[in-house]
Amino acid sequence: MDLGRDLVLATPLLVASGPYGYGAEVADLVDFDRLGALVTRGTTLKPRAGHPGPRLAEVPGGLLVGIGLQNPGLDAVLERYGAAWAGWPLPVIVNLCAETAGELGEAVRRLEGAPGVAGLEINLSCGNGRGGAVPGLDPDSTASWIAAARRGTDLPVIAKLTAAAADIWSIAQAAEDAGADVIAAINTLPGFLPARDGRGPALGSGYGGLCGPAIKTIALRAVWEIAQSVDIPVIGIGGVSVLDDVLDLLAAGASAVGVGVAAMADPMLPVRLGDELADACRARGVAAVRDLVGTALPKKRSAPSTRGAEYAR
Ligand SMILES: Cc1cc2nc3c(=O)[nH]c(=O)nc-3n(C[C@H](O)[C@H](O)[C@H](O)COP(=O)(O)O)c2cc1C
Question: Is the pLDDT reported for residue 131 higher than 90?
Fold first, then answer.
């Protein structure tokens, strides 16, 4: 699967940011040569301690996560893992998070030419912790963050969007216009769970990010809308745990599919889903996975889901 700018995936299945950490954690467990790509956990210019625990809470249909981007900072990450990434048989994509577009630009410039880095994924759903907004909620800030990344690198730039945005059509268009090569959607969705005794939140972070099967149809809706609004490829992420989830995201318009929380419990799952997808293509007489992409898209552009009142009539 060719996502542009020399980012070529051997299979359309990749592991989304988070579950594999920086990859070294699972290198002995996963056949990297049978996986499309590995997206690292979120990384910031400076080290981040993350949120106090508890950081995970099981909820119906998924998991509520509040890690807070714990990471040792970009320089330490490159020093510790860059050489290993360069020797692995799959593209490693670094997931970047920042507090401002300027800080993002600085991180991106440091990654240009770094060994083993095949692409950058810009997490537009982590916010400016100092009172600012989450960039992916607004087309203008999405554009300024992606433009800052684009200016600093020739590597493929993936804009990772959040379905918490009301109008994902214009956000995806803003990312494409600002120079993104690929859109990834979706990230976790904000949720809240009280502690069992009702006193305060269950997670140390207060809010958490909801992931898992509970968000699958929201991810499908987002991918379906994004695929109608841009011409660049879409990586569909959200609630994938079985082959039907992969097929649904492809049908909704994704060219590649990311596995998130399900790969924490079962690190080989993304590889097996890639094998199952190849088997399904053979069984259906489908020559290439791209023939499955976008089959559920309408012939004529649909109305954005924000115009929900239209559906009520
Ligand atoms: C433990 C964990 C850590 C995550 N960390 C990040 C991150 O650092 N950056 C990011 O963009 N997304 C992160 N995500 C979000 C996933 O990449 C994915 O977008 C989301 O979980 C939805 O997919 P899923 O339902 O398959 O888990 C994380 C998810 C989990 C479960």
Answer: no
What span, in angstroms and rounded, lies between the C-alpha atoms of 226 and 183? 8
Dig out the tokens for 78 from the structure.
């490159």
Tell me the C-alpha distance between 257 and 270, whole Å. Answer: 9
Q: Tell me which residue has its CA closest to atom 6 in ligand 1.
A: 18
Distance CA 65, CA 286 (A): 38
Letter string b/e over residues 80-91, b meaning 16 or more CB atoms within 10 A of that residue's CB: ebbeebeebebb
* Beta strand segments in the chain, E: 13-15, 37-39, 56-59, 62-65, 92-96, 119-123, 157-160, 182-185, 189-191, 208-211, 234-237, 256-259
Q: Summarize pLDDT for 229-280 with one digit per residue, the tens.
A: 999 999 999 999 999 999 999 999 999 999 999 999 999 999 999 999 999 9
Where exactly are the structural domains of the chain? 13-312
C-alpha 130 – ligand 1 centre gap (Å):
22
Alpha-carbon gap, residue 170 to 31, rounded angstroms: 38
126 is catalytic: yes
Question: Under 8 Å CB-to-CB from 207, ≥6 apart: which residues?
Answer: 66, 190, 191, 192, 201
pTM: 0.97
The fourth-level CATH superfamily of domain 13-312 is Aldolase class I (3.20.20.70)
The active-site residue, picked from 97, 126, 211, 281, is: 126
Atom of ligand 1 nearest to the CA of 41: 8
CA distance 2 to 270: 18
Residue 313 has a CB neighbour count (10 Å cut-off) of: 4
